[in-house]
Amino acid sequence: MPALLAEVTRSGFVESLHHGSVIGLLPSGEVGVAVGAVEDPVLPRSCMKPFQALACLSAGAPLAGPSLAIAAGSHTGENRHVELVRQLLGGLPVGLLRCPPSWPEDEETRQRLKEPSRVRMNCSGKHAAMLAACVASRWPTQTYLEPSHPLQQLVRRTLEELAGESVVHTAIDGCGAPVFALSLHGLARAMQGLVRTPVADAMRGFPEYVGGTGHVNTVIMQRLPGVVAKGGAEGVLVLATAAGHAVAVKVLDGNPRATTAIGLTALAAMGFDVSPAKESLAVPVTGGGQVVGEVRVVF
Question: Nearest 10 degrees: CA dihedral of 138, 141, 143, 148?
Answer without folding.
Answer: 30
